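fyi for ur records
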Amino acid sequence: MSTSRPSYTAFAQRYAIAIALVLMVIVLSLMSDAFLTWRNITNILNQNTPLAIMAAAMTFVIIGGGFDLSVGAIFGVAGVCCATVALAVSPAVGILIAPLVGLILGIGNGVVVTRLNVHSFLATLATGLVFQGLAILISDGNLIPVRNDTFTWLGRAQYFGVNVAVVVLFGFAAILTIVLTQTGLGRRIHAVGGNQQAAELSGIRVDRVRIATFAISGLAAGLASAITVSRISMGQPSAGAGMELQAIAAVILGGTSIYGGEGAVWRSVAGVMLLALINNGFNILNADPFFKDLATGVVILVAVGLSVAGKRQ
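which gave:
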């Protein structure tokens, strides 16, 4: 019995999210004819693409043993920069500048965490406040509308009924999966998150690895912001407020260990989609919003419990 428990816990951590997704789809399909329609499914995917992109990259940070509470603020800064440049230069340059801004701010996060030797939770909480102020400074606290059909291509265009943004999500997630599972960087991230001291003794440049995880997280926040600004044709300094907590919740829900060293990109994306299905299901069924929050909280608590149990095992 004692030898079987760890395997059950590990299996639950790895595949519980997939099982939960399938069960949720089955239940909602039986309860509402409006759920399992092409329009509803594509709407769910499109609406949650920015958050899924951020959660996919947040997986790197958490596997590496850190947290990034600044991605919501980076989202806001990248968004207002995107809209400003789109108006001043061109829509294409505006779209491209957002991921670049996110990458630069993400690198800044990594440098603060490693050089000042401050816990990432506190460091990114502080940089997030700085980035929020920066977004307000750039936009002067105002919305920045962009009235240009070319600018909306990334956020609104569809091919064969599938949004371009959804294709970007799956492409980005596939690239991150390859990096995490098939490259030296991915192996070093797992090593650093699993045991930082052992990683240092084995010759891994821990600071560089941790900076890389925050850089990827910032890049993803910028990309997600470009998609959102393109969709709504407007830059908003406060647009990303709260998204950092949603991304972390989705990553933990996907079975990534809060202690680092274990996780998968696909499970984080699945975590976003499970939260989206819960929200969509309650909306379709016109249920009390209180029960939606209750159900979401219970699901996240179970995921955290599995993570803690896995660590103890």
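The first strand starts at residue 144 and ends at 145. thats all i got for now
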